[in-house]
Queue: 4 jobs
Job 1
Amino acid sequence: MINNVPTRLATEQLTAALRESDEYQQYKNLREAVMANETNRTLLKEYQRTQTKLQMAAMAGSTASDDDVERFNKLSSLLYLNADMAQYLLAQMRLQQLTGEVFQAVAAATELDLELPGM
């Protein structure tokens, strides 16, 4: 919890601006449409689980299993065949990029030295 009043107000303004952004609005609308389908939810959950395993392996400096890589590739292909799911995943990436840019700006403004993959 942020106790500093000016910082808390700035945080609230930033979160409000993010929620009003085109990137968030598109993501939210597409997420609702995609999550309304149980099959989509199940496939997406498995896709994200496999993606996380691959990312964790990469961050640990180890090689992901061939099975996990193959599973991720198959899930990716399957999900991107669905137009709604493809739009949702792209909207999610755009929103992640936006929040990453915000984080980079805050880290730079506070002279916080972080070495994060992909940033």
Note: Residues 24 and 95 are 6 Å apart (CA to CA).
Job 2
Amino acid sequence: MLKTMTTFFDPAKADQNARREVLKPWVDEARALLRLAAPLIAMQLAFIGTLTADIIMVGRLGKDALAATGIGAVMFYLTWLIGYGPVMAVSPVVAHILGAHPNDRARTRSAIRMGLWAVAVISPPLMIMLIWAKPILLFLGQEPKIAAMAEPWVHAIAFGLPFALGFGVLRALATAIDRQREVLVISVGQVVVVIVANYMLIFGNWGAPALGLLGSGIASVLGYAFAFFAMLGVVTLAPAFRKYHVLHRFWRPAWDRLREIFWLGAPMGMSMIFEAMLFNAATLIMGTFGAASVAAHQIAMNVGSITFMVPLGIGLAATVRVGLAAGAKNAEGVRRAGWTAIVFGAGFMLICAVVIAAIPHTLVGLYIHADDPENAVVVRLAVVFLYVAALFQLFDALQVTGQMSLRGLKDATAPMWIAGLSYWLVGFTLAWALGIWAGWEGFGVWIGLLAGLAVAAAGMTIRWAVLSRRVP
């Protein structure tokens, strides 16, 4: 009673309490988002860590080997993106189920089961596609020497594709029920496996054969297989997951759920393909300028990819948070979840932009011997590309957190068109025009990437602002 009277006679304190009440839901949302996002960010960093380990260790073999890994990664990443569409659909589907009915284990189990079915269906044709890596790379104008070097790496890593996709499906369950500590441990273990296997198989240490690029591809497969089987053990044995009985009646079809996963996953996958293949197309354009341009592009792209994992992890968390709120018919919760993710992602990437612009030479030195005269051109180009990468950090954060928030509402078709127009009508056209026609080469290509991301960021953010207001 005394507290209430004190507040009544103290308008300043009353205003402060009112502000605190207004801010409390946002603070609670921020805490929930970051708690969910932290392990997701770590997992995404672990994912890119496997590729980074390959790049850094392969870089010790020279610029040709680094360039071969770069164009080989284009091939592998394309197949992974095609397969990852249905995998991404599992997360919002499960979130909507649990948002509406928190104890619905049967439908949750069917969504995970059909996600694994989707991986089993789509992986074999994608792996077969990778057999033709060398002819495809030659057709796309890559240097014969570099294409030949990339071929064994692509052939080896193809066997890791189903494990990488399957791990993504199982991870969706952990994300939806907010149980990711085990997944984080597995992801860190995956990086350790890849680094150790790379050390053994690339250079022939500890009695292993020195396989060079082939060894790097095998190391990545071992990492993906470790992550999948470890996660499978967790979801079948750990108490928090065991109640869902993920493998129970595994061969029993749920055709409606499988159709939903493919129907929702197709435009999601296309959105990622539009974006990622712009960057991969940029790698192939770089290949026409020579090995030095490809190597420099690979270095700058990897730095940008590492920073991108943080807003991507925040975005993945936003998909779940928005999906749970949407499933519970909580319109205010939907809006809070999306905007909180967008603000946090943008804030982090602004910090990254400053760091990249401040120490580009130091970052390049992590990937290649910067003092070696033979690498002088690579270093010079990579520094220029990093300056442009610093400029598009903010745009990258806005487009991914906006797009992932839209996925939480199961809005996939409009983001697909936004991505297609932004990355290919704007981004690729400018990259080709400035890089090839105007003769700016690598710098022109990176300006095209910057423009594409800027348009996508505007489109995704505006789409979220409009659609989130319409949530009943």
Note: The longest helix spans residues 11-59.
Job 3
Amino acid sequence: MREDLHVAVVGATGAVGIEMLKTLEKRNFPVNKLSPLASARSAGKTLSFRGEDVAVQELTRDSFDGVDIALFSAGGGISNEFAPTAVEAGAVVVDNSSAFRMDDSVPLVVPEINAADVAKHNGIIANPNCSTIVTVMALFPLHQAFGVKRIFASTYQAVSGSGAMGIAELERQVGEIAEGEPVSRKVYPHQIAFNVLPHVDEFLDNGYTKEEMKMVHESRKIMGLPDFLASVTCVRVPVYRAHSIAVSAEFEKPVSVEHAREVINAAPGIDLNDNVASNGYPLPLELAGQDNCQAGRIRVDCAMENGLSFWVAGDQILKGAALNTVQIAEEVANL
């Protein structure tokens, strides 16, 4: 791995940006110089990194001089505007937005699955959508064993997927209900406290949402399966952190629960938690703050041939965003 890298974090004061800094520190990434970048509103604030306070700088077109790797997590608009500038300045961009994910010239990478694609970059590498990452962490090793054809999936997505505002909305509404006050709404179209909303992202003409179609298109690209099919319903639930997904998958080869468990147990980045006799299965409450995803409730699907049903969960701020981004940066540093 290259040493003494100049790393910029765009959107450093956001929830994912802060987790990126923590992850860089935790994984001992070879940062020689750190440039936390954010809007003019946040410029001058300090963030802690390796026991020192580092001043946040305003993001401008001159921010990337001398930068080796730039980690972006400030939304698609910022990525579209500034990622090309960073590349022109000589940086490799790892982008956490949806801006470049489906660009044929941009690798879309989950390192446990397709790390080799990093070497194909032309300056930008995309980080997939969080619910897609959590899903394929379990699905891909099963695909390697059995050959996946299609899935039917429902997501259970935490409010932190909407950022700090989503968390604040749930907290506020719970307090309002406890006090017998009218429930206010600012983030979601309906009350999220003690409710579930089958609505994540914008609706498309086909009746699906953008979030649901991301899992279809991004999974194809990550796994290298252009014919892969997925029917997905994305649901927002009143959980603070960590996404869960219920998956029913059809495979080309005969399946068994025992083999599937062995496959998950041996796969990197995901742990098996599948002992229903003692109520053992993945829980978002327990996975919040954890690097690895978990899979459980593995069973033979009773509605399709060569089918498996399973439940997978993971921290969407870590493996679904910050951790996966830093893991990609590690692959870049190893080129």
Note: The chain is about 30% helix and 25% strand.
Job 4
Amino acid sequence: MSDWLGSTDGGADAGLFAAPGEPADHAGPVTAGLPPVRPDAPLAVRMRPVSLDEVVGQGHLLGPGAPLRRLVDGSGAASVMLYGPPGTGKTTLASLISRATGRRFEALSALSAGVKDVRAVIDLARRRLTAGEQTVLFIDEVHRFSKTQQDALLAAVENRIVLLVAATTENPSFSVVSPLLSRSLVLQLHSLTEADIGALLDRAVADPRGLGGSVSMTAEARDHLVRLASGDARRALTALEAAAGAALDSPAEDGSGVVDLETVEASVDKAAVRYDRDGDQHYDVISAFIKSIRGSDVDAALHYLARMITAGEDPRFIARRLVVHASEDIGMADPTALQTATAAAQAVQLIGMPEARLALAQATIHLATAPKSGAVIAALGAAMADVSAGKSGLVPPHLRDGHYAGAEKLGNAVGYRYPHNAPDGVLPQQYPPDELVGVDYYEPTGHGAEREIAARVGKLRRIVRG
């Protein structure tokens, strides 16, 4: 997947993205402009910025003296990882860097390039360096490179045989090997603001490279396109192009078209959900989902649930997280929460989607509105910490297994007192190893059912410990 305004198909961009050894549409270094864009190219490609002045957003990276500004100006020498959502300008910025004075530009896509391609580019860059020419190597979707492919870049990056500009929609901390990460500046691009998207739409309508004033756009249509974009420039321009095409199919008497709200709604089905089941959005959204439930915000929890369902997330994954959450963050404050979550997981298995989404929603609402307690996970964590610290003394003799010949001679099970023989079903008796007598792991809160459990636990401890 190429990023905004960075087409990787043929035609105008074939030379820019030609693999090593393939003929390019242009000769010589890419320093004085890119090949002309076809008039029939997508609007997003035609509107690609050709200078920093046309770049919208990312002001935090393009200020005077900033590393990215220096790279684009041709004075920087650091390799960079451009990390951000789709449509924020990663490929566009890479193409601007390629035009920096004195630098040759090579591009690889992680979707198609192998180790052989990487090494070929590095060998070419090494030969150029002996002639005083520096090479910018742009790698799109670098997170899709294998560890071997990423390792093949290390020496060239460290010795500055190539200036690496890598683009990724995934958090590089999770998807890029540490040695390569440590040799690069990680620059995070942000989703474009509504003002950025609006300005981009206005420019596309008026600019000769875009629609050249062939259509007008109502304020309502503009606002709707901005909302549909969700900070993605390419999505905004693609939606505008579809709406403009529909408007021009039914032009006014003067031949112009009007992009109004009705036209946009008819041309664009719905906003695509920004969600990658294999990427950091997967982890970010499920994290927000669980934290919203923990924070008792039922509406936010339902939003993130809807987002996952719409994006096609595995419902079994959602159900498993609900089951875990029922014990982790609710526990004995509402013992029925685990039952509801487990029932939802069973419903997913029994009836599948889309019907099972209702069971997931019911469980989400139950857990979000339930009283919360972290006492269960805290109790288990404290107990496991003691075990890990070596506090695993001998089992008291009277609790040991006595169901074998010779057990009594060893003292096993001798003196065990059967609780059901006591009037209340509880009696004084040592249960933990000697070094853990009197240690409290479970500390009930005052939330929900744990208010009553707290009183009962205190009474039980007093009786059992004598």
Note: The longest helix spans residues 233-249.
